[in-house]
Amino acid sequence: MNRNCFLKVFAIGILASSLFISCGDKTESKKEETVKPVSLQSINYDLAHPLQKWSLSDSLAQISGIAWVKNGQFLAIEDLRPILYEIKLGDTAGIISNKIQFRQAEEDKFDFEDLAVVNDTVYALWSHGAIFKIIRGKKEDSAQRTKTWLKKDNNTEGLAFDPVSGNLLIACKEESGLQDEKKSTRAIYEFDRKADSLKPGTFMLINKKDFEAVAGEKVDFYPAAIAVHPTTHDIYVISTKDTKAIAQFSHEGKLKAFDYIDKEVLPQPEGMCFDPEGNLYISTESRHHKPAYIYKFALKK
After folding, report:
1. How far apart are CA 160 and CA 194, in angstroms?
2. What Cα–Cα distance (Å) separates residue 62 from each residue in 6, 57, 78, 259, 284?
3. pLDDT tens string for the chain (301 positions)?
4. 274 near 79, Cβ under 8 Å?
């Protein structure tokens, strides 16, 4: 091969290599262009614009659960005392109208996390998995404690009445209690009110990977409160630890929507419930020299 032919072949090789590299770059660029961030699928409530808020007294600074009773009246519980607080909502403040002590405070160290109301019966949840059943009588109240196999490591923090089954739902903030599940998986169990016992198996699971589809990223979720919508029966769960957020699930346990919570509005959301019209109420503990509050939120228009 003479010198001219060699130079022609060399030049053709360089050109072919350049075209190959250029096409490769275009292919990579095209792939990058097709990757789009997942948009946030928000819940049905406007958390940025509460309809109203009510400040609470110092005795409810550590409010951990709320339940709707009737128009303008709620029951509440706080962490350390076995006391039910009857609250009447005024214009700007929630006034304690009655206190019901259902256990001797000196008997045990308590950590009450939530409550649920079913007719004349109130259920209070201890963080170690026990449920206290308080029956309101005309002359006096009675209370009984029911243990479940859920323990301190599960950290039971959410309790709600499920109108579909007539039972209670218990949300675990920490360990799911399932050997084959990841540590990040959270579990919700069903408590059979008639049998006074926890049903075997889980009612639903909350998986970290499920949040990618609606939040655009994996989310560390630690259930602190749970409530069932009165008409749609969607299940709402609040996370307080690390990620402050609220997730909306179908009654079958499918994640439908998700919102981050503004910590300036709700610095420590621990309680949640609905009224029969579907308005959402969230209570937050006292933080940064501000009192505890109950907020009311309406459906988005």
Report:
1. 16
2. 85, 10, 5, 24, 8
3. 544 444 444 444 544 444 444 444 444 443 344 433 445 688 999 998 999 999 999 999 999 999 999 989 999 999 989 999 999 999 999 999 999 999 886 666 789 999 999 999 999 999 999 999 999 776 667 889 999 999 999 999 999 999 999 999 999 999 988 877 788 899 999 999 999 999 999 999 999 888 888 888 888 999 999 999 999 999 999 999 888 999 999 999 999 999 999 988 899 999 999 999 999 999 999 998 899 999 999 998 7
4. no
* Residues 238, 285: Cα–Cα separation, whole Å: 14
Distances from the Cα of 268 to the Cα of 28, 90, 161, 215, 291, angstroms: 45, 22, 23, 21, 11
Q: Which stretches within the chain are classed as H helix?
A: 3-34, 211-215
103 burial class (0-12, 13-18, 19+ CB within 10 angstroms)? middle
Sorted by sequence, the CB contacts under 8 Å of residue 62 that are 6+ apart come out as: 78, 79, 80, 285, 286, 292
Residue 66 token pair: 């709320």
Under DSSP, is residue 213 helix (H, G, I), strand (E, B) or coil? helix
This prediction's pTM? 0.85
Q: For residues 225 and 59, what is the distance between their CA atoms, to the nearest angstrom?
A: 20
d(CA 221, CA 259): 12
